[in-house]
């Protein structure tokens, strides 16, 4: 029997939508889907400053999607739940199945990609 949708369910999906609404946060989630990482490594991989990375990781922590793990004097980040990796893969597959041309080289649906000219 289908589960009754509650306000809590809607809020949870809204948090995911908020996280995915920013390309930097989406790229962080996709990177963490592959492997946990230190913020400085994520900043280099995503191409943002460490301050921007810190702010975006704080947002993702607030959304409950990533967690920090102390590692001596450093901290690394991972997805808060391993099922999130599969969910992100499923969402990506669905978007590409619905519109295979989306996000191709000529895509304008999300505006310019960070680091590329408009």
UniProtKB/TrEMBL annotation:
Gene3D superfamilies: Winged helix-like DNA-binding domain superfamily/Winged helix DNA-binding domain
Alphabetized InterPro entries for the sequence: ArsR-like_HTH, HTH_ArsR_DNA-bd_dom, HTH_Metal-responsive_Reg, WH-like_DNA-bd_sf, WH_DNA-bd_sf
GO biological process: response to cadmium ion; response to lead ion
Molecular function, one GO term: DNA-binding transcription factor activity
Top-rank lineage group of the source organism: Bacteria
Domain named HTH arsR-type: residues: 5-99
PANTHER family found in the cross-reference section: HTH-TYPE TRANSCRIPTIONAL REGULATOR CMTR, TRANSCRIPTIONAL REGULATOR-RELATED
Protein name (database record): Metalloregulator ArsR/SmtB family transcription factor
């Amino acid at each position: 029997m289908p589960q009754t949708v509650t306000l809590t369910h809607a809020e949870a999906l809204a948090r995911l939508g908020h996280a995915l609404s920013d390309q930097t946060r989406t790229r962080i989630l996709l990177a963490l889907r592959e492997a946990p990482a230190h913020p400085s490594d994520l900043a280099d991989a995503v191409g943002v400053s460490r301050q921007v990375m810190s702010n975006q990781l704080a947002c993702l922590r607030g959304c409950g999607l990533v967690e920090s793990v102390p590692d001596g004097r450093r901290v690394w980040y991972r997805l808060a739940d391993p099922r999130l990796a599969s969910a992100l893969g499923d969402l990506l597959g669905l978007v590409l199945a619905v519109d295979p041309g989306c996000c191709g080289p000529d895509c304008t649906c999300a505006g310019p990609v960070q680091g590329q000219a408009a």
